[in-house]
C-alpha cells in the first residue's frame, strides 16, 4: 500500500490513477539517484563532532543567563 502524497496538481494519492502514481514515484527516484551518498560511519562521526563543538553555545544544555531570559517573570502578583 502506498503512503498518501500529493501530486504536482495537488491531488492526493488516492485520487490518482496507478499510472500517475508510478510516474510520481519514478520522478522521485530520479531525483534521489542524483543525491551523493556517503557512508554512515563517516557522516555519523561528523555529526557527533559538530554537536560536541556546538554544545557550549546550546542554551538547552548550558542554560540561559537570568538577565537574558525572556521568559523570566518580571514581577510578582500580590493578592490582598
Automatic annotation (TrEMBL):
It comes from the Eukaryota. Residues 57-80 are annotated as: Disordered. One of its GO terms (cellular component) is plasma membrane. Gene3D superfamilies: Transducin (heterotrimeric G protein), gamma chain. Residues 12-80 form the G protein gamma domain. It is a lipid-anchor. The keyword Transmembrane helix does not apply. It is found in: Cell membrane. One of its GO terms (biological process) is signal transduction. Keywords: Cell membrane, Coiled coil, Lipoprotein, Membrane, Methylation, Prenylation, Transducer. G proteins are composed of 3 units; alpha, beta and gamma. Belongs to the G protein gamma family. Guanine nucleotide-binding proteins (G proteins) are involved as a modulator or transducer in various transmembrane signaling systems. The beta and gamma chains are required for the GTPase activity, for replacement of GDP by GTP, and for G protein-effector interaction. This is Guanine nucleotide-binding protein subunit gamma.
Amino acid at each position: 500500500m502506498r503512503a498518501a502524497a500529493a501530486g504536482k496538481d495537488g491531488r492526493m494519492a488516492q485520487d490518482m490513477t496507478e499510472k500517475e502514481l508510478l510516474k510520481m514515484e519514478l520522478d522521485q527516484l530520479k531525483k534521489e539517484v542524483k543525491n551523493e551518498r556517503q557512508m554512515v560511519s563517516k557522516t555519523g562521526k561528523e555529526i557527533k563532532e559538530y554537536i560536541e563543538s556546538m554544545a557550549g553555545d546550546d542554551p538547552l544544555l548550558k542554560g540561559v543567563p537570568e538577565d537574558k531570559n525572556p521568559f523570566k517573570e518580571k514581577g510578582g502578583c500580590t493578592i490582598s
